[in-house]
Structure formats: C-alpha cells, structure tokens
Design a protein that fits this description.
alpha/beta, Polyamine Oxidase, Chain A, domain 2, FAD/NAD(P)-binding domain, 2 domains, 7-stranded mixed β-sheet, 15 helices, 21 strands, 28% helix, globular, binds flavin-adenine dinucleotide
C-alpha cells in the first residue's frame, strides 16, 4: 500500500523545475557541455534582506516535510479532531499538498467543513492562527453563520505568507511562499481574482566556475527513488542514490540543493517513498503584496493579534484557551492551525494531553528548513536573461580552514560531515520586472548552516555563489 502510494506519485513529485527531459533512461554522470563565461566582480548590493524562519518562534522552521518512516497517514492523524471540539488544520495536516499554500488552503476548508458538520447555529468557534489555513477556515465558518474569533500570535495576519513592503524595494521581497508551479492552477486563479501580481520566470540556466553547462535534471534521482519500491523499508533520498550506486556528481548535488531550496527537505532524512514535490516548470513568482490572500477571507471577522495561545483545555462540552497575555477565553469549538514546528515545541499545552497517536504523528513528521536572501543591485552585473539560475560545482575561492559553519563552499558537497553552503538556486527578477533583483534560495542542511551566519558572512557567501554569473 505504502509502496504503491510512493511510487505512483513519483513522476509528479519529482517533476523537475528545470526543462523537462524526454529521455526515460538517464545516464548517471553526464559530461557537461562547457561554454566559458567572462569573469568579473559581484558588486555590493544596494539593498539586502534575509529570512530567518528557523528561529521564528511562531513557525520554528519553514515547511513540513516527510522524513523516512513517516507517511501521509501521519498527516491525516495530525488533522483528526479531538472529541469533536478541537480541530486541526495547517499545511502539515494535508496529505496531498503538504508544505504548500495550496495544502494550507485545502486543510482550512476541510477543518471548517468538519466543524460546520457538527456545530449548531451561532456557536462560538475560535481559530488559532491567521495564516492561510486559519484565514480560509475562519472565512468559511463566518459564511456558515458561526460566531468566529481568530487568535493570532503575531501582530499581523499571513503567517508564512508575508511580503516586506518597503520603499527600498521596487519589487517587494517575499519572506515566505511566492513561487508557483504550473500545477498551482487553483492558487494562481485565486491570486488573479484577488489582484495578487505574478510574473513568469522564463528559462533556467546552469553555470559552474568554468561557464555554462546543461541544466541538471532530476532524472537520476527519480530513477533511484523508483528503485526503492522493491525495498522492504523506506530509505532516505540519499540512501536511495547510494542503493542505486550513484556517486554524487556536481550536477546531482546541485539538483538536490534545488530540491531542498524549493521544498525544505534534507536529502539525508527525506523519505524516498513519499518524496517531495518540486513546483512544475514553467515557474511564476509573486511580485506584489500577498496580503489579499488572507485579508479577503478574514474580511471583517474578529481577529485578536499579538496573543499567542499557550494552553488548550478541552472536554466534550467545550474548549478554554489560555493566552500569553494572561487572558482565558471559552469557546464551543476551536481549530488549531499553528505550524508543525510550534506543535513539536510544546509551546501550547493541551489538557488533557494530546492522544498518543497524535503525538507520534507530530514526532514522526519533520519541519524542513528553507531560507532566502534578497539582493537588489544598482545595475545588473549579469547578462543572462534566464529567470532561474543553478550554480553547479565548487565556486568562489578555495576553502580555507575556518570555524564551522563556514561561509566558503565545501570542496566535496554532500560528503558526510560537510555542509555545502553555496547558494545554488537563484531567481533573477530582471527579465520579468526590469529590476536588478536576485533572490537566493537555500534549503535543508545549507539553510540551517547559513542561518548561523552573520549578515557580512552571508553577503560574502552570496557574492561567491554568484561568481559564475558575472560577465561582460
Ligand atoms: C521561505 C519559505 C518559502 C516558501 N515557499 C513556498 C512556495 O513557493 N509555494 C508554496 O506553496 N508554499 C511555500 N512555502 C510554504 C507556505 O508558506 C506554507 O505552507 C503556508 O503558508 C502555511 O500556511 P499555514 O496557515 O498552514 O501556516 P502559517 O502560515 O504558519 O500560519 C500559522 C499561524 O499560526 C500563528 N501561530 C503560531 N503559534 C501560535 C500560537 N501559539 N498562538 C496563536 N497563533 C500562533 C502563526 O503566527 C501563523 O500566523 C514557503 C514557506 C517558507 C517559509
């Protein structure tokens, strides 16, 4: 059953964000075609912004991922209601689109419908969290004439959907979700209706220290993952490659880095039976404020900001919430939409404690790491018109011994004990927006490592990572 689920989903889950390959039998170590690139300098950025989701107390990570041993059933268990009083939503509870905005929307709709099925007219229902899942759930409950209160820890709505509105940035940086694959049709049309602007990112290109090479594809990984169908147990993506006898070529390591950047997974721990889903090419990017996605469903509902929930006391007659502000509020029912990272941290005490199955589902799933670095330049220093860039192989100066984590790239990416911190995936917003803005995307172990770097070291790392793209 599990094997079938994993393997059947393969072609979709590992669909590359790079041009599609028509070759069903990939070769294992393709020889890159090299076109030399003139080398120049990466100038200092005129504006810089970085995300820090790993330490954000109301996220504690970027997006939920499925490690070895966990299955979509864990997500269903996480989403199961307790005594028809405490309901659960949020991207981590969605078995089909976990870790995405679409998963958040689907989970909010599901949880709201579960409440509507059992609630009587006029009941008081609390929604904990005003991210996309909470906003969608609250809007639906409001439409069903229930008395809805949303309680949010931050001083804003949106959660992991957030735009940095600032005059310094002609295209506003997105700290959370902002890339849409061609399979995100529902979300794209929702954005269209709400006036959230998107642009197409166009082609992808790949470069190493010696110049342009073919864009790495996921074919080798996809084949290795398919082969795990015959194994008695789930193994990690890295172990699947080892099983297949595939050595970590620079192209493969770059593909894994892009997979981590776009999904938050760590190849060393990610399940090969339930592999992550890459956004499908061609990619679109959001270039305006994402706020309407949550503000519209919230409408004029009652939202209390800056009020972290610290306790949920429940029985089969109702629910009482304790807030960090010291207040206690009672409701007929509640929908909990906080991220998996928050549930794993025990920041919210449940009384009675969550049942064993739910606690084991929370423990089985993993909060992935993904961070981004936004750089605005006065002038472009690059000439390529490609919207998605991949950095392959070692770049920058030869690594020198330094304390870990190091801002210099590892000479043997993927080797045990090493963390390759090179920022290998970049979005070039110049062709689509006319603004010389580059966005570096990092995921998995690299994201955890760069989260430890100070701003100066991160900027040095970004410049080194971009060196293959300098040119006349
Ligand atoms: C860097 C990054 C890039 C991403 N890129 C993409 C992408 O390109 N495409 C995509 O589809 N998805 C992407 N995602 C994932 C996407 O952002 C999330 O899956 C989605 O926004 C999750 O919505 P949610 O409502 O489940 O959770 P959240 O948005 O996290 O909402 C939960 C809410 O609960 C609140 N909360 C937490 N603790 C408490 C508490 N104790 N009391 C009260 N409130 C609390 C939080 O403040 C938050 O507002 C990305 C995420 C990150 C971090």
């Amino acid at each position: 059953m599990l094997l079938g689920a994993g393997a059947g989903a393969l072609t979709v889950l590992l669909a590359s964000c790079t041009p599609e390959s028509t070759d069903p039998k990939p070769t294992r170590s393709p020889e890159p075609t090299v076109t030399p690139t003139p080398v120049g300098e990466v100038p200092a950025a005129a504006a810089f912004l970085r995300t820090e989701w790993a330490t954000d107390p109301f996220a504690l990570g970027s997006r939920s991922v499925t490690p070895v041993g966990a299955t979509p059933v864990d997500r269903e268990t996480l989403g199961t209601a307790l005594v028809s009083r405490v309901f659960f939503a949020g991207e981590a509870t969605d078995p089909d689109r976990p870790g995405t905005v679409s998963g958040g929307i689907l989970s909010g709709q599901r949880a709201a419908d579960e409440v509507i099925d059992v609630a009587e007219a006029g009941e008081r229902v609390a929604v904990i969290g005003a991210g996309i899942a909470g906003a969608i759930a609250a809007g639906r409950l409001g439409d069903a004439e229930l008395d809805v209160s949303v309680i949010e820890a931050r001083d804003r709505a949106g959660g992991r959907l957030v735009t940095h509105m600032d005059d310094d940035w002609p295209v506003p940086p997105q700290a959370g979700a902002w890339i849409l694959g061609s399979d995100d049709t529902e979300l794209a049309s929702r954005m269209g209706v709400l006036g959230v602007g998107t642009v197409g990112l166009g082609d992808a290109t790949a470069r190493g220290a010696d110049g342009e090479i073919d864009v790495p594809t996921g074919d080798i990984l996809q084949q290795a993952v398919a082969d795990t169908e015959t194994l008695p147990d789930d193994v990690s993506l890295r172990a699947a490659l080892d099983e297949a006898g595939v050595q970590g070529s620079p192209e493969l390591e770059e593909f894994l880095a892009a997979l981590s950047a776009f999904t938050g997974v760590d190849p060393e721990t990610a399940s090969s039976w339930f592999p992550p889903r890459m956004p499908e090419s061609p990619l679109d990017a959001v270039v305006s404020d994402v706020a309407p996605l949550v503000e519209t469903p919230l409408g004029d509902l009652d939202v209390t900001y800056a009020s972290p929930v610290t306790g949920v006391v429940y029985d089969d007659r109702g629910v009482s919430l304790r807030l960090a502000t010291g207040e206690a509020l009672t409701f007929d029912r509640v929908i909990v939409t906080v991220p998996l990272g928050v549930l794993q941290s025990d920041a919210i005490e449940f009384d009675p404690p969550l049942p064993f199955e739910k606690r084991s589902a929370i423990a089985a799933l993993e909060m992935g790491a993904a961070e981004s670095v936004w750089l605005r330049f006065d002038e472009p220093f690059w000439t390529t018109e490609a919207g998605v860039w991949h950095v392959v192989g070692p770049v920058g100066p030869e690594p020198t011994p330094s304390p870990t984590p190091t801002p210099t790239p590892s000479p043997t990416p993927g080797a045990e004990g090493d963390v390759d911190t090179t920022i290998r995936t970049w979005i070039n917003l110049l062709p689509a927006t006319g603004e010389p803005i580059l966005v570096g995307l990092v995921g998995g172990p690299a994201a955890r490592a760069i989260a430890e770097l100070g701003d100066d070291d991160l900027l040095t790392l970004a410049s080194e990572s971009l060196s293959p793209f300098t040119g006349a």
